[in-house]
Amino acid sequence: MADFGFNEHHQNEVINYMHFARSKRALRLKTIDSCFQDLKDSRLMEETYTVDEVSDMLDGLQVLVHGEVEMELINTAHTNVLLLRQLFSQAEKFYLRLQTDISELENRELLDQVAEFEKTDFKANSKVNQESIKPKLAPLNEGGVSELLQKEISRLQEDNDKLKARLRTLESQAMSALDDKSKAERALKELQKSQGDQQSAIHAQEITNLEGTVAAMQADFEKTLNANVASQKDLQDCLVSAKHDLLRVQEQLSLAEKELEKKFQQTAAYRNMKEILTKKNEQIKDLRKRLQRYESDE
User: Fold this and answer.
1) Which segments does the entry list as coiled coil (predicted)?
2) pTM of the shown model
3) What's the chain's Rg over C-alpha atoms?
């Protein structure tokens, strides 16, 4: 069977099937022979027959032989289907898709090789131990496609394990990142709260200082207004100077606010600048009020 490239196991399976096919063929041939013998025994009892009688006997024989041959062909086709069913079922266990080439079934060269094999290698007197050969095909457990499938399954399992390990690493990193984010958010809230409390204390102190300054300036302004009416010109000069000081203080305050936003640790400097600005603003307000009172008195 070297021309077909079969291994020893598959060659034994082919021999087993050919034994089965030969036995079925021999049985069917015996049945056909019995049809002719029955005709001889039952109808050919006389020495002469008419044409109609011969035609009738041949028609009957034709029906019997036709039925036997048709039954054998049908049975052979169905048997081949069952054989293919075994092969396909076994292949599907390993996720294989077998294909057949119907045209090869009429390949005369291959058919001649099978006939030659049956004449030479497949001896009629070489009996196969039917008990040692199972009627069903045994699954492939090693070599060939099974080995390739096993390797592919192992590779896929290894890739799956790697992906699972990578997933666990990513999950750990994600949890760590979430913890860091939560800590940063809590630190930011605490810092904002601390800044808010400190700024509230600064504003309260500034208001207290400003109230004292305003009270002092009001008293001084009243004394100055009652002492010398001619101090109007000096007051106007003070007002102009105060305006210039206000512009400078405002500029300094703007710079101080920017600096305060950048460096929170310089809160003391910011507070001093704001106190100066507030005092100047109150002085300007008081001077304006005094000037308005003075002009109204005029």
Assistant:
1) 146-194, 239-297
2) 0.40
3) 58
Please give the DSSP secondary-structure letter assigned to residue 104: G
Closest alpha carbon to 17 in 68, 110, 80? 80
Q: Which range has the worst mean pLDDT, 49-53, 151-155, 197-201? A: 197-201
Tokens of 245: 């000081």
- Among 114, 107, 105, 81, which Cα is nearest to 4's? 114
Question: What is the predicted pLDDT for the residue at 146?
Answer: 61
Name the packing angle between helices 232-262 and 267-297 (round to 10°): 160
Checking 91-98 for CB contacts under 8 A at 24+ apart, the result is 93/139, 94/140, 94/145, 94/146, 94/149, 95/149, 96/145
Question: Mind listing the pLDDT tens digit for each residue in 38-75?
Answer: 888 887 877 778 888 888 888 888 898 898 889 888 98
Eight-class DSSP state of 131? T
Amino acid, res. 12: N
